[in-house]
Amino acid sequence: MSARSNILNKLRTGLAGSIPRPDDFDERLVTEPWQYAPEDRITRLRNLMEAVHTEIHQVHSDNWPDKVAAILAERNLSNLLHAPATAHGQKLAEYWPKSGSSAQLLAYDRPVEEWKEELFWQVDASLTGTVGAIAATGSLVLWPDRHEPRLMSLLPPLHIALLKASEIEDNLYAMMQRQNWSAGLPTNLLLVSGPSKTADIEQVLAYGAHGPKELVVLILEDA
Amino acid sequence: MSQRIPVTELTGGFRDRAEVALADGQLRTNFRTAMDSLMKKRADAFPDEDEREGLRELGNRIKARALSRLPDLLEQLETKLTENGVKVHWAETTEQANEIVHGIIRARQGSQVVKGKSMVSEEMEMNDYLAERGVECLESDMGEYIVQLDGEKPSHIIMPAIHKNRRQVSKLFHDKLGVEETDDVNELIQVGRRTLRRKFMEADVGVSGVNFAIAETGTLLLVENEGNGRMSTTAPPVHVAVTGIEKVVENLRDVVPLLSLLTRSALGQPITTYVNMISGPRKADELDGPEEVHLVLLDNGRSGAFADAQMRQTLNCIRCGACMNHCPVYTRVGGHTYGEVYPGPIGKIVTPHMVGLHQVPDHPSASSLCGACGDVCPVKIPIPELLQRLRQENVKSPAEGPKVKDGGAKYSRKERLIWRFWQTLNSSPVLYRLFLWGATRFRKLTPKHVGPWTENHTAPVPAKRSLHDLAREHLAREHLARNGGQ
Fold first, then answer.
1. What element of type H or E holds A170?
2. Which residues does chain B have within 8 Å of residue A181's beta carbon, measured at their own beta carbons?
3. Which of A81, A158, A176, B257 has the fewest C-beta atoms under 10 angstroms from its C-beta?
């Protein structure tokens, strides 16, 4: 007998004579306490994310690359990883020569194995999109794909994320429903609620444990 | 790194270790401070009692529903994960689980493993198993890393290094990594970051646990704050997730309340920094992520707990640690005193099913039954009730057919006879009065040493007169006074 059938048999014996419990999931319990007026969603998101050291700027769809250039300049960073095949990546690339920024634009255009050393140690910052955010918990939703791979939002010490104001949902349940997650998830769906942190020594909060030391969110107010 | 030296030389059982721990002022301060802060954080995270209780009830129902369909859900999970390209393995014992993990590593000719935090891998003692076979298995959660560096085991399931303060960590880093000593926690964390980042890059295999396995979509959900979980599951070419069979839930929506209960109960956070939902290996057109993803489903005694409808509730546990944070016993003796992987109240009800009561005979009684653990449990496990049940199982005679692994570990014919005598004595008025008469008249003859009681107390000596006697006399006097007045 295999381990699989032994385990399943034992469990089935344990359940003998019992009936499965009904699905009485009450969605009000996870939605009603977490509803906000549309104008309050950004405030709620900002409050929660800023409380865990996220830097947030409200910008417009025509001028956000300016802000990116300014953020890099403030920190004196020498490069930025972007996704040239996405709409926001293209916009950034078009704007970049005009920005006067000295930071070099990099692209994640080959498998990680081909540039692991560089990706792990030499990329200063990255810019990715999001597929929305959750006001209740102050979380961004990232849907990594071929253009914005998983490590792009993890390895660089600074992660800049673009968020459309219209894509902020009240709570996780609403987000799941609106985007119909149960019909198909990506390889790695992520909720990101701040820069990497730890409280493992004396419960003292320290930022920049293994992931980004800084998270900057640009909220596109008109998008 | 393979040898494991406990904090204090911990031989003997719970009682001996508790005595050592209680006398360790530093340890007690470290735990008291941490637990007070964790209790406050949890309370602050649930400001609305109605919301909290509604959510706990929902959490309980979701877990009860999942357990009522557990074998079907495990099969559904396997089917979905397989469709998604994840290889599913089953292990009845920790030995089998280790063999599976080692087999996967060997197939890749791997020699370096980097591990995200996983209590199931602690159950397996995976680090030691792999080290003995020439595979370096490095912990990457900051707390686990500190504990591993010092050759210890975690003392808390969420905060593994909670028993150490910053000076102890600084000294450890200085001794083992050759860095300057510092009191700055940020600097200590940066030492860990630099050391481990290279390991993430070089590792052949990444190992992680699982917080929730979702049958509907074939998804493994992991929560964490540091990013080490994402690193371990994304950077190496192979990801192996290990988990207990009780972690499966039916639907994706079921994780909404469970996630909220977990992070708020554990750390008082509305959510962790990262919620990582993995549904498969790297797809053909993707540029990173592991080429292979494996899930090892471990039983290790869980099906034993499952067999009994009452004890099945043990498997509701979502490993938040709130029960230990609120436990007056845990706070005073610390996690290592329990001598097992899972400390505190949850450890006391889950460990007997894994290792048997012979190994942990004192676990069920190491509790004041104050009820705090049951009150805070986010999935409403009636921990005090289960502890009482385990106490009964612990003293059952072989004829009474104990239902827990090694049940009857504390059964003693002598004790049973004493209790039977006690029962007879207290249920027969004639015998009881006779006994009282004797006990009060011959009080000088009571023994000076009566087991563990007299280690810390003076021996009990019956009063000269019994309450019965005094009451009778008192009533007689009153009667007399009343009659005399007439």
1. none
2. 217, 252
3. A176
Q: Label residue B485 by pLDDT band (50, 70, 90).
A: low
Instruction: Inspect the interface and report whether the beta carbons of A154 and B227 lie closer than 8 Å.
Output: yes
**Burial of A167: CB neighbours in 10 Å, binned 0-12, 13-18, 19+:** middle
Report how far residue B106's alpha carbon sits from residue B102's, in angstroms, rounded to the nearest whole number: 6
- Model confidence pLDDT, tens digit, residues B230-284: 999 999 999 999 999 999 999 999 999 999 999 999 999 999 999 999 999 999 9
- Segment A166-181 shows an average pLDDT of 98
What's the pLDDT score for residue B451? 83
Q: Does B39 touch chain A (CB under 8 A)?
A: no
Answer whether A129's CB lies under 8 Å from A61's CB. no
Q: What is the CATH number of the domain that holds A176?
A: 3.40.50.10420
Task: Examine residue A159 and state whether it is found in any structural domain, yes or no.
Answer: yes
**CA A123, CA A101: separation in Å to the nearest integer?**
16
Give me the domain span that covers residue A151.
Answer: 37-220
Two tokens, residue A80: 């930025």
pLDDT band of residue B5 (cuts 50, 70, 90) is very low
* pLDDT above 70: residue B6: no
Q: With a cut of 0.95, is the ipTM above it?
A: yes
Kindly write down the DSSP assignment for every residue of A20-69, as one continuous string: PPP----THHHHGGG---HHHHHHHHHHHHHHTTEEEEEE-TTTHHHHHH
Residue of A nearest to B228 (CA): A210
- As a whole number, the mean pLDDT across chain B is 94
Give me the domain span that covers residue B460. Answer: 413-485
Closest partner residue to B225 (CB to CB) among A18, A151, A197 is: A197
Q: Which residue has the tokens 């990262």?
A: B274
Option in B201, B253, B271 nearest A173 (CB):
B253
Contact B267 A199 (CB under 8 A): yes
Position A25 in a domain = no
The reply to whether B467 falls in a domain is yes
> Taking CB atoms and an 8 Å cut-off, how many pairs form between chains A and B?
255
Please check whether residue B229 lies inside any domain of the structure.
yes
What is the number of domains present in chain B? 2
**Mutating which of B32, B274, B308 best tests the A interface, going by the most A Cβ atoms within 10 A?**
B274
In a domain, residue A66? The reply is yes
Given a contact cutoff of 8 angstroms between Cβ atoms, the answer to whether A194 and A136 are in contact is no
